[in-house]
Structures are given as C-alpha cells and as structure tokens.
C-alpha cells in the first residue's frame, strides 16, 4: 500500500470542500472496498478524509412518505431496518444476498454505490485495463479472455465490466435518488440512472460526481407496495457476486418494474421493458436486453436473465 | 491531472503517521502508527495479540474476525487509526484456558477444527451468528423478513459463509454452533 496522509472531518460540506482542495484526496467510510483496492495499489490516494463521524447514519421519514437513508448507514443496519423490511423488502433482500455479515456490518450505503467492478482484469495489475489506466487497453476484450462474469449490454469497445452492487439494483427498481453536496455547499438529487455512467470511451469515469462532491444519502419515494423479490444467481450459494440478478416489483394494478444486476456497467432497467411485464419474461427481456453484445463466453447471461425472471413471475 | 512527481512529493512531505488511543479487551493502548496499519496488523504486530489470524488479508476468509462495538468485522479491512473511541474485542477477550467461552468449549467438544488457524475467526463469527439471530436480524435464507427466525443448519451455514476453513471442518463447526444454540435455549427456559 502507498503511504497517505489522513484527517477526520466531521461535517459533510467541509469534507467536500477539503477534498476539492487537496490533490489526490479520497473519502473513506467503511473502507471495505477502498482498502482492498489500496492494498492492490489500484487505488493510490495521497490523502484520506475520514467521514465516519459526519453523523450521516440515520434512517428517517421524508415529508413525501418515503425514507431518507444516511450515506453512512451500514448495509446490515439498512437491511435489518424494520421500515425497510416492511415497505421496501426488495432492498433488504438484495442487501442480505451480498457479501458476508462481517463486510455488511462495515460497508456503508454511499460506499456500496461507489464500489468498483470485480472484473478480473481490473484487479490484475499485470494486465491492461482502461478503467485502471485510461488508454492502456482492455484485456477482457483479448481473444481467449475470461469474460464469463462480465457485461453483456451497454458495454463499449473499451470496457465490458459490470457494476457489482446488489443494493444498487434494488434502489434502481425502487426509483431511489442519490443525494449529494458539492464543495460549494450546493446539494442535488440524482436518480440511479442519472448517477451511473456507461463505460463509453472513459470507463474510468463511473458516475457523474464532480471533484469533491460527496454522497450524503439515498432517498426512497413513498412505498409502492406490491410483491417484491430479488433473485441472485451465482456460482456458489453464499458470498459470491451475481452472474445475473433480477429485482422485481409486481404491483396490484398488474403493472411492475424489473432491474437487472450482473449484466452492465450500471443497474439495468428500461421503461419499455417494464411495460411488457404482463406479457411474460420473454417479452420483457426482448425489450430489456435489446442491443446486447455478449461474448461467446457470457451469452448464457441472456438466457439466464429471462429464466430467472420467469422463475420469479411463476412463484406462488 | 496532477503529475506523478507532485504526487510523490506529497507522499514524502506529508505526515503519514497518526496517534490513536485504542480500547482493546477493556484495556487502553496509546499508539503512534503509520496510517496504513490495519487493525489486524496493529493487534498482531504492535500489541502481540496474535489470536486474530491473517489469512487472505483481503476480507475474503474471515480469519481476522473481531468485534468492534459488539459487531463482527474483518480486522484486515479497516485502519487502526479510524478506531479511536471504539470498543474492540478480540478472541483473547472472548475467553482463555481458565475461563473458556461456551463456544470455545463447544469447538473442542465437537472436534471443530484441524489445524486451528481459522478457529479464532470462526469462534468470533459463530458467537455473533447466534447473537444476530436472537436480535432478529434476518439473513439471505430467512423465509419471512418480518417473522421469527428459526435456528437451522441452513441459517448457520449462510451466516458463517464469511469464514473459510481449508481443512474442511465445516460439519463439526456446524455441530459446535448447534450445541451452543441448544444450550442457550435450555438455559433461557430454566
């Protein structure tokens, strides 16, 4: 790990201003992904700003009848929260399907959103990766590369990595918004779709956060009710990343929403696919995965996504 | 973008050490550490509390599991300097040869290890597993998110998935945890 300087700042706006001012600064909260990446020297911050005492660790009701989740709320605290379990079960289910309890106890809501891909070539510093080193090339696109776990849609000729978060897939299907504050003290709210970028020709830029801008929380709209499910398909029964995951909400009016994890650089959802829910899994996936460009090794994800959704729809 | 030289200059000139007071197993330790020092390395290398083990050092194996303010975490994935004011408990604080914790005794009674390297982490996680079920925290395999949680092999296996055992003592680890769970229920009834 490279050496770094460290300070704790107990106010989010001040932390944002400070991060803007110090070159090479990064925020640290749970640290479960950042320290892992620092040990690999994939992340090499010069300065760490500890934001764990900024008080952003509450889950509160909003005036609109929804819930505001502080950026520092741990994955365990969020998943186990009574209101979340009752009114947003798809979020609890997604969180409980990810990582181990030790990691969920430490990992924060904001950090979960910002975790980096688990593409094997991003982690292997001996291989070229445009995400790690812009312009270096992408080893995942070389002939014979191991792409079984990688993206099938929204990919580019520079990167086919996926976003690894389960939580973000549930937040996407719930129409959640990410709340931020910038170094000038201005706040804004972004939908998950607006927040995450596709890789394009700058796969190293994964979201629209500006320098110093910090996530302060996530806002859930009023509960939509209905039947909510999260189905994660993976290589082992526990503690593994998704090959494909499906977040599904079926509301009483016969309508619903679907989001996919494990297939793209961001949680994957399309309005036109949601509109097909009454017509079955095949109709939904035809719209949702239109334009997919899988490799020979990961084309199975298209079939798997459809069958996973079919299994959820068929559930009693 | 700031050039590499500026970066390296900062690394050379900036203070890369910090002072911290840690509370471990009820004892205060005043330390001055390289900022990079993980809680695990602090325990093992600086304080000679070598019960917590280093397996993967990447949060994948669970051999370093300790409690911070009562919750189990991977000590290898957290910086020691971030734990001023926290209560840290390691396997040394769980029990010793004279005062064995029931879970430690159950691991011995059930032959729940071979080489023993993962055992301190397994025991810390096992105790937390039963506490978490009692606190009503569901898991991936819990059928009803809002209902009571039954202690079952499936629940225990899921909740212990962050602790690997390369000797493959899983069957007896499961037995040990079930034994403690049973004893706890019996004790609560009496």
TrEMBL record, chain B:
Classification via InterPro entries: 2Fe-2S-bd, 2Fe-2S-bd_dom_sf, 2Fe-2S_ferredoxin-like_sf, 2Fe-2S_ferredoxin-type, 2Fe2S_fd_BS, Aldehyde_Oxdr_Iron-Sulfur, Beta-grasp_dom_sf
GO molecular function: 2 iron, 2 sulfur cluster binding; metal ion binding; oxidoreductase activity, acting on the aldehyde or oxo group of donors
Pfam families: Fer2 (PF00111), Fer2_2 (PF01799)
Keywords: 2Fe-2S, Iron, Iron-sulfur, Metal-binding, Oxidoreductase
Domain 2Fe-2S ferredoxin-type: 18-94
Gene3D superfamilies in UniProt: 3.10.20.30, [2Fe-2S]-binding domain
UniProt-listed PANTHER family: OXIDOREDUCTASE, IRON-SULPHUR BINDING SUBUNIT-RELATED-RELATED
Protein name as it appears in the record: 2Fe-2S iron-sulfur cluster binding domain-containing protein
Species the sequence originates in: Vreelandella populi
């Amino acid at each position: 790990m490279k050496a770094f300087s460290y300070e704790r700042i107990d106010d989010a706006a001040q932390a944002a201003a400070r991060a803007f001012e110090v070159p090479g600064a990064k925020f640290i909260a749970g640290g479960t992904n950042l320290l892992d990446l620092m040990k690999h020297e994939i992340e090499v911050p010069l300065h760490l700003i500890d934001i764990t005492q900024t008080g952003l660790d509450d889950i509160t009701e909003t005036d609109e009848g929804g819930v505001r989740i502080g950026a520092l709320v741990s994955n365990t605290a969020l998943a186990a929260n009574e209101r979340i379990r009752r009114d947003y079960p798809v979020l609890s289910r997604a969180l409980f399907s990810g990582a181990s309890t030790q990691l969920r106890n430490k990992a924060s809501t904001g950090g979960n959103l910002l975790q980096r891909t688990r593409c094997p070539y991003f982690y292997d510093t001996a291989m070229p990766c445009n995400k790690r080193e812009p312009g270096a090339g992408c080893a995942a696109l070389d002939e014979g590369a191991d792409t079984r776990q990688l993206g099938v849609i929204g990919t580019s000729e520079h990167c086919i990595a996926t976003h690894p978060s389960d939580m973000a897939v549930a937040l996407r299907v719930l129409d959640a918004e990410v709340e931020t504050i910038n170094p000038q003290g201005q706040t804004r709210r972004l939908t998950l779709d607006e927040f995450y970028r596709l890789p394009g020709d700058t796969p190293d830029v994964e979201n629209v956060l500006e320098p110093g801008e910090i996530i302060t929380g996530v806002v859930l709209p009023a509960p939509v009710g209905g039947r909510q499910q999260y189905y994660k398909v993976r290589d082992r029964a526990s503690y593994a990343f998704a090959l494909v995951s499906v977040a599904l909400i079926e509301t009483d009016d016969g309508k619903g929403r679907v989001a996919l994890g494990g297939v793209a650089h961001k949680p994957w959802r399309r309005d036109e696919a949601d509109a097909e829910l009454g017509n079955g899994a095949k109709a939904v996936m035809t719209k949702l995965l239109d334009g997919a460009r899988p490799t020979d090794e990961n084309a199975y994800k298209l079939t798997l996504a459809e069958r996973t959704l079919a299994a959820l729809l068929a559930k009693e | 973008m700031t050039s590499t030289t500026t970066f390296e200059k900062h690394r050379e000139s900036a203070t890369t050490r910090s002072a911290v007071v840690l509370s471990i197993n009820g004892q205060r330790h005043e330390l001055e550490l390289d900022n990079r020092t993980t809680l695990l390395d602090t325990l093992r290398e600086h304080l000679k509390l070598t019960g917590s083990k280093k397996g993967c050092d990447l949060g994948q194996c669970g051999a370093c599991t300790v409690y911070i303010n009562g919750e189990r975490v991977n000590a290898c994935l957290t910086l020691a300097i971030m734990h001023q004011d926290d209560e840290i408990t390691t396997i040394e604080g769980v029990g010793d040869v004279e005062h064995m914790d029931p879970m430690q005794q159950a691991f011995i009674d059930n032959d729940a290890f071979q080489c023993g390297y993962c055992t301190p982490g397994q025991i810390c996680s096992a105790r937390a597993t039963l506490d978490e079920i009692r606190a009503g925290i569901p898991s991936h395999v819990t059928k009803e998110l809002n209902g009571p949680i039954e202690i079952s092999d499936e629940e225990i296996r899921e909740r212990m998935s962050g602790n690997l055992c390369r000797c493959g003592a899983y069957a007896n680890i499961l037995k040990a945890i079930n034994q403690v769970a049973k004893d706890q229920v019996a004790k609560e009834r009496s």
